[in-house]
Design goal:
Chain lengths: ~240, ~190
């Protein structure tokens, strides 16, 4: 007869703690403790990979538009059966809110074409998605950027912190700075410049503003950071 | 920066969810939908049902927004709702548990000689009581400590331990019946 252990938390190991770390729910000493543990624990690193795969599956299976529509539908449903007329207003108002949210672009949807991220060494990469009819599509490196809502998808590899910066004729803007979670960056943006670059700065510890500026200015990252650089350009008008 | 505009729709590096109407749902999606969908897929084993359940979970979260936003861990709160919802769905399918346990326990192949522990756990959930089911998922899948489970569920530590032991007892009995060649480790050390 063979015995099978079902698992459970280990000494310092917890899928929930890794999940909470990546969701930005841990702070202070607890965050430091979990980060340090994660850096040296193969089991928890495997958990982090599983969570990254969950993000990829979400993009494939349930787009934001479909998600929001389904939530709105369910929020509105109780209004049909609620007893007191005034109570109808609450879910209806919330549903209306969600329908407003439906109009927000979410660009994590994958298109049918080749979507290899723009990569450097170490498996890190960056994909830029552009809003398109019927969803979104991944722009190829060097492809002219249309004037539509854009969303970046991060592939941070094993790095723990990410800063996504946009630099163009007008200066530098921070699109995202925080835990290096693989998948689409939540905030979509629209860019109307002529020429610019997206810079993904990956590191194990948060980079200060000065460090970011230094890297953008050409400082060598050494072993403390990795840079993924994506040029942006408009189509030439005829 | 005149040529650049961020479109509201999610977090920007901070942990708190934005309260603006448009940003809330997008932030919930970006931060929590993947985990909830994965939990629903794991328990329901049906992609369409998992998508439906995910939407249901977030609708419930929005209907209980003050409670959700006041939760110590929104992640844990949502996964509990998802687990509870899916376990309720699964109870209707309880009849076929023997075959499922047998399949999960004996499902080793040359390519995958290890038993899929999570598949086996999922099959064994069917034979436990509702509260034991939930605590088994929190412990074995989410890898929460008994203390963390007690805090998340509002139960005492002895109750958590009792429920987990109850689950293990039911699981051992089910394995003995469905698949006598395979057992769980003896003892109640959790």
């Amino acid at each position: 007869m063979s015995a099978i252990a079902l698992g459970g938390p280990g000494v310092g190991c917890s899928a929930t703690r890794v999940r909470r770390l990546l969701a930005g729910e841990l702070a202070g000493a607890e965050r430091t403790r979990v980060e340090e543990h994660l850096a040296s624990c193969g089991r928890c690193q495997a958990t982090r990979e599983e969570l990254a795969e969950e993000e990829r599956q979400l993009v494939r299976s349930l787009t934001f538009e479909r998600f929001a529509a389904g939530v709105a539908e369910r929020m509105a449903a109780p209004a049909e059966t609620a007893a007191a007329p005034w109570m109808h207003l609450v879910p209806l108002a919330l549903a209306a809110t969600l329908l407003v949210a439906l109009a927000l672009p979410f660009l994590g949807r994958r298109g049918a074409g080749p979507e290899e991220p723009y990569r450097t060494k170490g498996g890190a990469g960056l994909v830029l998605h552009a809003d398109a009819s019927g969803g979104a599509r991944a722009l190829q490196p060097g492809e002219p950027v249309p004037e539509v809502p854009l969303r970046a998808e991060l592939h941070p590899g094993a790095w723990r912190e990410a800063a996504l910066l946009l630099r163009d004729e007008d200066g530098v803007a921070t699109l995202y700075a925080g835990p290096a979670r693989p998948g689409p960056v939540p905030g979509a943006f629209q860019w109307t410049g002529r020429r610019g670059e997206l810079w993904l700065l990956l590191s194990d510890a948060p980079l200060s503003e000065a460090e970011r500026q230094a890297l953008l200015a050409g400082a060598a990252p050494g072993g403390r950071a990795e840079i993924v650089w994506l040029p942006l350009a408009r189509a030439v008008s005829r | 920066m005149g040529r650049f505009a961020v479109i509201p729709g999610g977090r920007a590096g901070e942990a708190r969810l934005p309260l603006s109407e448009g940003g809330l749902l997008a932030a919930l999606y970006a931060r929590h939908a993947a985990g909830v969908l994965a939990r629903c897929r794991y328990l329901l084993r049906d992609e369409e049902a998992a998508r439906d359940a995910t939407q249901e979970v977030f609708a419930r979260a929005l209907q209980a927004l003050p409670e959700f936003q006041g939760a110590a861990s929104p992640t844990t709160w949502l996964l509990r709702i998802a687990t509870h919802h899916c376990l309720n769905e699964l109870r209707a399918r309880r009849a076929g548990w023997r075959e499922e346990v047998r399949r999960a326990a004996e499902g080793r192949t040359q390519e995958a000689p290890e038993v899929d522990k999570r598949a086996l756990l999922r099959a064994l959930l069917a034979v436990a009581e509702p509260e034991e089911q939930e605590m088994a998922v929190l412990y074995f899948v989410d890898e929460m400590t008994q203390q963390e489970i007690a805090e998340a569920t509002g139960r005492s530590l002895p109750t958590v331990r009792k429920r987990l032991r109850g689950f293990l007892a039911a699981a051992r009995a089910a394995l003995a019946e469905a698949c006598p060649g395979i057992s769980l480790p003896e003892g109640d050390d959790l």
